[in-house]
Amino acid sequence: MTQLNSYRTGPDEEGRFGIYGGRFVAETLMPLVLKLEKEYEGAKNDPSFQSELEYYLKHYVGRPSPLYYAERLTSHVRSMADEKSGRAGKKGAKIYFKRDELNHTGAHKINNCMGQILLAMRMGKTRIIAETGAGQHGVATATVCARFGLPCVVYMGATDVERQKPNVFRMKLLGAEVIPVTSGTATLKDAMNDALRDWVTNVDSTFYIIGTAAGPHPYPELVRDFQSVIGREAKEQMMEAEGRLPDVIMACIGGGSNAIGLFHPFLDDKDVEIIGVEAAGLGVDTDKHAASLTGGRPGVLHGNRTYLLQDEDGQIKDAHSISAGLDYPGIGPEHSWLHETGRVKYVSATDDEALEMFQLCAKLEGIIPALEPSHALARALDKAAEMDRDQILLLNMCGRGDKDIFSVMDALGAD
Amino acid sequence: MSRIKARFDKLKAENRAAFIPFIMAGDPDGALSLELLKKLPGAGADLIELGVAFTDPMADGPSIAAAGQRALKSGQTLRKTLEIVRSFRAEDDETPIILMGYYNPFYSYGPEKFVADAKEAGVDGLIIVDLPPEEDAELCLPARAAGLDFIRLATPTTDDERLPAVVRNTSGFVYYVSVAGITGKAAGQTETVKGALARLRTASGLPAAVGFGIKTGEKAREFAAFADAVVVGSALVDEFAKALEANPGESNNAVNAVLRLAQEISGAIRAARV
């Protein structure tokens, strides 16, 4: 691994992280993307924009989210470790949760939506569009649109509309129009295609709130910046709780917005080990998974170069994960770069492992995690069991599992 | 001289606009799309745009997106599309072929290897929807170095400030997208398109084609009065799909249905400046 002086300087002027990122969009969108970049630069350096964002994050979203010591999960890991080694008292790091599942709307998604809608209004846009998979980003977008009185159109794969009825109803209740997408394979990537088609058709009025740290530059950068509040708070809170930084931080990765939000403020803390967890579906050696870094290779989709699940001809393959939020065949470009530089280690967890953690965390901590962070939890338990007791592992609990109870019930065959 | 340049010079001498049909390679399968391709010049095609199927065609409407899905389902790949061009070229050395698609299949093929193989197969130009001038180093410059034309799309959102960048490395012709939107919807207003094409011609010194939303001979004729070329895609692709669906066993009928529509449109274009 090449040691860089800083891992926090990207993207460059072309919107690249190493070779990843860029602006691979149709000419119709180029002037908009360039304008957005310019406007975002302005907003970033405008104290009044930042203080407005802080105000809403505090009073509407409910930030800062707590940092929580997961004591019973820690005990569980310690007894597992003792059992494995046959002796007592050596292994099992303290596990902390950054509790972004306590945000308004139940996930980290709203951090980004709040930032983007303020940016949209600053640019004088009068209509908002978004794509959604499980519906979490759609709900967060519909929420901020309701709050600021802007019309909202959410594109959602037809199969997801069927699977995620409660979220579809929530979005409608919030005043959004949900458009089922039947093109292509009718999943999240196709919802993103249709959102881009809408944007290209309604360039003057419309702002596209992308839900993850992907898409053409400057989206990966601005989504990361809006989500970095997670890592900044966690750092401060950990200093307060333990007087030092954690030894390991972990998060789940689909497109990777919660992960980059936690990771980015820690990238130059060389003693902090950083681990991202992709969705292995039925296993990364099968064709039913969503692990772009583990099972994909670099390609170009949705405006950026990044690792993609694709066949030999460069056709995009469908991703699979029990968690609709991780069910995407790509990943944010900054993660591709962090993977190649070796600064962040990327591993994976299967559907079954996530299901097991979903139940374990509910029983031991009284916290029903979303299926997404349940993936991270699976690898976090293994990792903590190998670490010493005086070490600390921090996991981003990026969403709550209320939305998942029906699909988990189905998967477990419960009634 | 490139086939594209030769063809536009000839059309200029004849004082008429080019008819550029678009069909999808591999739709509904390789053999039938090749058969249609070979017959298009006889139906009045002056240049041909051959679609390269992609799973996620972000700038395409339902018609062309569905054609791409059918092609992929039949097993079409970029390699096989080059084979189609090679077969076409064995019989026709004059009609320019332009491949139109999205970057990832080309990137996956390897840009350097692709431009060499494409040149050898008889491809004349490329239109890659998601490669703006900011990404010219990817494929535009290698294509130009290999002697392929790289045809840029200009759109209603391309303002004066941006136009020089858009035309800088363009060659062959420039393609004006008549509306901000996707393929197969309504076409732009005639006067607006006329002004835009004049502006493009001045900035690039190249012929200016217009496409997106042109579905009838009437509309084609209207644009052909002042455009250097008129592109028609969705209407032809739809005609093909409709005929195949109505009579699945009668592929000849479907090919003929497309050729009839092509003839009608090319006739209208030829009549535009009479």
Automatic annotation (TrEMBL), chain B:
Transmembrane segments: none
A family per Pfam: Trp_syntA
Keywords attached to this entry: Amino-acid biosynthesis, Aromatic amino acid biosynthesis, Lyase, Tryptophan biosynthesis
GO molecular function: tryptophan synthase activity
Record-annotated active site: 49, 60
EC number: 4.2.1.20
UniProt entry tagged with the keyword Lyase: yes
Root EC class: lyase
Pathway assigned in UniProt: Amino-acid biosynthesis; L-tryptophan biosynthesis; L-tryptophan from chorismate: step 5/5
GO cellular component, one term: cytosol
Catalyzed reaction equations: (1S,2R)-1-C-(indol-3-yl)glycerol 3-phosphate + L-serine = D-glyceraldehyde 3-phosphate + L-tryptophan + H2O
Cited InterPro entries: Aldolase_TIM (IPR013785), RibuloseP-bd_barrel (IPR011060), Trp_synthase_alpha_AS (IPR018204), Trp_synthase_suA (IPR002028)
UniProt superkingdom: Bacteria
UniProt subunit comment: Tetramer of two alpha and two beta chains.
HAMAP family per UniProt: Trp_synth_alpha
Family: Belongs to the TrpA family.
Described function: The alpha subunit is responsible for the aldol cleavage of indoleglycerol phosphate to indole and glyceraldehyde 3-phosphate.
Name of the molecule in the record: Tryptophan synthase alpha chain
Species in which this protein is naturally found: Hyphococcus luteus
